[in-house]
Amino acid sequence: MSKIFPNNKYLNKLFKSKKPLIIYKVKNGYDLLTDFSHKIQLDNKNIDNFFSNILHLDPDKEIFDGYVGFFDYKLLCNLIGLKINKKKSDFFNKSIFYKPETVIKIRKKVRIFSSLSIEYRENELNNELKNYEENIFYHKKNFDINYSLENFKEKFNFAKKKIIAGETYQIKISQKYTNNSYINPIEFFINLMQVNCSPESFMIRDENYSIVSCSPENLIYKKGSKITTKPIAGTIKKNKLMDITLAKKIFAENKKENKEHNMIIDLERNDLSKICKPGSVKLKNKKLVEEYKDLFHYVSEISGEIKEGVDIKEIITAMMPGGSVIGCPKISTLNIINNLEDSSRNIFTGSFGYIKSNLDMRFNVIIRTILNYKNSIEILAASGVIFDSKYKNEYEENFIKAKSLMDLFKL
Q: Is 121:35 a contact under the CB 8 Å cutoff?
């Protein structure tokens, strides 16, 4: 099938169909989740019931005793008491979670675990393929951008004034790249994984939208009482002469990148401290350098031990939206962003992942992501502005972050 997925008859049929599915990057391969028995679109009114229902699932009777899906940026802001002004392209403010009945573990071999019988799954898929009408996919090569360099300079200068006034120390300004396309998400995901296989990558195909992501950033990994977060703050553009050793040296000597990273470390420590036992929050790995297709990132890992009695909502509201894609301090900076940015973030800087009945969870930060809805594509990127920042550098950084995704449209 590809270098990413082994040749498997059932997978081939599944990919060819229009059946809703999710593919999630895991340590040694991918997990594919499908046969969703429940799909729920979350809002301010039903989210508490959703969290409560997860706790009542029975892990002994479940293939996957939880839900997998994503929170959008607007809902996450609402959960911490912030209202978002209506904005341009406010067209996909959705938070959607799914309950899978089939989990396909794709490693060197393919293993299928399902609450449904083999006969039922095969018959359902064969019937769907009989009635299959081929989609007419198309994609344009070029993208529009919502801010010209001069537009971005105005936003940048406004942010700098807020920094000088002491209302924020760092603020992430997002840019949006758009075109009109209708993509095959399976094909795009395979192509993306072959060039930029990031640790928090995922793909969703549903009947009226798709998401393809090579997110590199883990926001929450919780197993038992242990929780970790791996904030990314700091970016260097790659060139042919640069290897990871040189990138480490450049990062170490770059005062701006170090200031930006230190701020985010402090913010994430503070967020973890809200839900963790006193004294348990530790910086495990500081300022590691990770390599991706077009850039290098500065990454740290922070861990803690969850206090007894902390519930799902408390964890979500303490950690989301992720500070590395907002700035700090979080609340005042979010208020500035919501007045500064003209266009809705939609799912960008939300979080994708899973929650299980025992409160184990894993969530990323939704960045480096293609959203395809109503034949419209949007890709967002954000760069961090601090006192020492230069607007041309931040504008270029946003382009570098979005480039690996936009390059797929040239294939």
A: yes
Distance (Å, rounded) from C-alpha 173 to C-alpha 178?
17
The answer, yes or no, to whether residue 1 has pLDDT greater than 60, is: no
User: How is residue 400 written in tokens?
Assistant: 């570098």
- CA dist., res. 334 & res. 353, Å (int): 22
Provide the sign of the torsion angle of the four alpha carbons 396, 322, 202, 41, taken in this order. Answer: negative
For 352, the token pair is: 């994708």
Alpha carbon distances (Å) from 244 to 136, 264, 284: 42, 22, 21
**391-406 and 149-164 are packed helices; what angle lies between their axes, rounded to 10 degrees?**
130
> How many CB atoms sit inside 10 A of residue 137's CB?
13
Q: What are the sequence ranges of the domains in the chain?
A: 9-410
pLDDT band at 61 (very low <50, low <70, confident <90, very high): confident
Q: Where are the beta strands (DSSP E) in 264-386?
A: 282-291, 295-305, 327-328, 351-356, 361-364, 369-373, 376-385
pLDDT value of position 2:
66
**According to the CATH classification, is domain 9-410 in 3.40.50.2000?**
no
d(CA 403, CA 411): 13
What's the sign of the alpha-carbon dihedral 181, 197, 337, 322?
Answer: positive
Q: Is the pTM of this model over 0.85?
A: yes
Measured from the Cβ of residue 140, the count of other Cβ atoms closer than 10 Å reads 10
